[in-house]
Amino acid sequence: MLVPSIAALLSSVASTPAAGVVLADDRSPAGERRxxxxxxxxxxxxxxxxxxxxxxxxxxxxxEQPEVISSPLEHALPNVDDGGLGKAYTSVxxxxxxxDVCVVGAGLSGGVIAERYATLRKQSVLIVEKRRHIAGxxxxxLDDQTGLRLNLYGPHNFHTKLTNVWDYVKRFGRWAHYYHKxxxxxxxxxxxxxxxxxxxxxxxxxxxxxxxxxxxxxxxIAEPCGPGGCSNSEQQSVASVGRAAYNQFYRGxxxxxxxxxxxxxxxxxxxxxxxxxxxxxxxxxxxxxxQPRDGYTRWMAGILSDPLIDLVLGVDxxxxxxxxxxxxxxxxxxxxxxxxxxxxxxxxxxxxxLRFEKLAVLNIGEHGYYQPGTSVNYxxxxxxxxxxxxxxxxxxxxxxxxxxxxxxxSGADGEPYYPVPNPRNxxxxxxxxxxxxxxxxxxxxxxxxxxxxxxFNMDQAIDNALRIFDGLDRDSAPGRPPVKKRxxxxxxxxxxxxxxxx
Length: 502
Ligand SMILES: Cc1cc2nc3c(=O)[nH]c(=O)nc-3n(C[C@H](O)[C@H](O)[C@H](O)COP(=O)(O)OP(=O)(O)OC[C@H]3O[C@@H](n4cnc5c(N)ncnc54)[C@H](O)[C@@H]3O)c2cc1C
Prior knowledge:
single chain, alpha/beta, Rossmann fold, nine-stranded mixed beta sheet, 22 strands, globular, binds flavin-adenine dinucleotide
């Protein structure tokens, strides 16, 4: 759909900013010039409300108007994409072919296990993937319209504290150092998120200078939970950042993301969002933070490149399960656990999903940008989406005269992305897990975020897959050394667990 002007395009987006809001698209909240070398096309609120949220841009040549085209992101999806491997089947090979290991799902979990069996144990592996591409939710591709590399299922930022995981991922491609930063757009201005000293100074009109002052200020505005601890996300957030910041940054975002009030969600949902008592505006504090230079799909192709791995794309396991009976030594299942046990009579687990809208901004110029950073959160209810990502800010992007912003809106229907952490789902998952434990006796193993109904960051998914391989491997060859227990549960900063603030 061609759209003649930004105002017309976005007139459907409601905007009700408070009267007298600060207009901050040229200057950072701290009063310094922001990214002076780049020109941005981004949103700006009207004083007194009533206008469109997006109305100002900086075309490369004066008088030249960029063209803005909006479409669902999945329309950009290319045909079958095995990341350049050139070995994907689109149907299961006929008998008498057999494999030592069959894997359902060509995402990180399935890919890592397949790679281990093929390269370390020289065993044959068949991967069956229902999507037409490899890499699971990390999948990225070059967009025909703009030449930029986009993630189909939301932006992915690699970060880890785990040296074994970092050593592993480096073996399959080049990585570019990258510190992810996030801004939140609220009351007409951009502020760093998660909240840090700069954010607190801006929203509370303070002049806090260091950790002690910030900590003392936070202690003053916080409303501590009772002696029993915080029992939900509202209490937890108010205890951490105070009522005003909760209302401004957490409440609306959580409502939009989860479809329920924070008072109805586990305290852990917001509990692991860090609050910084310094000016550090990196989103993650992990030691290793990088992006694959040639994208996640190419990098995953490296993981799957062993000739002992056969790959079938665009085929649902449940459609070929019968044809493969007796032809797989072991089965590794990385799909949703409740799909595997669909005949068990148990109710379904619930998930949150996302819809992605692609906004291509054409002819903005090679140095033209839409927003001041890669990622912007929108906590206000007046804005229907939760987050926008401008991929051109990522390292390793091809040069382009255009830019693309992808906006995310949450919902209950669609691809299962986020497990919903509530007592009903915890209890139900325990029942599925008991079924899965019995299935393990038949050589079926459940690996990954959908099979474990647990939000894994990429590094956690890799670590988990490596450890499961080690465990299975040791069981099949008892002489092998035991898997070392991890001393402390991995903590990954803001992006954790069921957090969804990824
Ligand atoms: C929106 C979003 C943003 C994220 N951002 C980050 C981030 O910034 N940093 C980070 O570290 N992590 C991030 N993650 C998490 C990351 O995507 C996961 O850690 C990773 O994808 C887990 O890999 P997996 O193989 O377990 O699952 P998946 O990637 O989901 O792979 C499972 C695969 O199994 C396939 N499958 C399912 N059922 C069947 C079937 N019946 N037959 C055949 N195939 C089947 C699926 O199609 C899928 O390809 C994000 C996740 C989401 C949803």
